[in-house]
Amino acid sequence: MSSVADSAHASPGDSRFAVRRMTQPDVATALEWAASEGWNPGLDDARAFFAADPHGFFVGTWDGAPIGCVSAIAYGDAFGFIGLYIVRPEWRGKGFGMHLWNAGMAYLGARNIGLDGVLAQQPNYRKSGFVLAYRNVRYEGVACTSDEAADGIAIADASGVPFERMLDYDTHMFAFPRAAFLRAWLAPNREHGRACVALDDDGHSVRGLAAIRRCGTGHKIGPLFADDLPTARALYRALVAGVPGERVFLDVPESNPAALALAVEHDMQSVFETARMYTHAAPDVPLARVFGVTTFELG
């Protein structure tokens, strides 16, 4: 087992250090680390995260024991997303993180790569070729029920909507298909979450998609995709109605004024910001319809 004593004079050049791909249990361990960092992941995120790209999670080990990690999710041949970048506190400042970072970046290769990083780390990400696109703002509030009408918008449980319709809508909003991830993320048997779909008047066309999941603290909503503010509002209220009085979090692109308005009208407060950055031009995402980012770890 690794220890603080081991880390005192450790270096990445030592044969006791290695980088390998994670298993799903490794991802669960990484999410426990993320929780200890205050990132507040969902209680059952590991399965859906791993489904997104089973080859895209890397763990650094010392004598076989995990000491750091990074995720590098490939969405097809054109796009990837870096996240879950953690080195355990006692192993920091020795170069292990850079080896993990390089492993993730090498795996994603020439793809356009995105990330959500803390604002203070922007200069470091620029050194790796990332350019700021916009900021995402995390809002926190308390779930409350509402007696207001939903403007005639039909909200259905995701389990009752054909998956291909939801995938088509999500692909347009995210700009790249992520079928394996979405199937796990919206699964009706997900123990700590729920997903809803807003349908058009014909009851067939999707006009919004949203999910909520329980985290170590409260609940996170993501994604929250909608054609307009009334639809986003109806989806938001449908989701929080199931967790009245509990804390909820919504990660909003700062460049979408309607999304900011949704957060404000529900008495949510800004608590955290990230820098969304890309190595190439920002993907053609309709940000005016993104009311909530899916996750900061996977995009």
From TrEMBL:
It comes from the Bacteria. GO terms for molecular function: acyltransferase activity, transferring groups other than amino-acyl groups. Residues 17-168 form the N-acetyltransferase domain. Pfam families: Acetyltransf_1, Acetyltransf_18. The keyword Transferase applies. InterPro entries: Acyl/Acetyltrans_Enzymes, Acyl_CoA_acyltransferase, GNAT_dom, YitH/HolE_GNAT. Keywords: Transferase. PROSITE patterns: GNAT. This is GCN5-related N-acetyltransferase. It comes from Caballeronia insecticola.
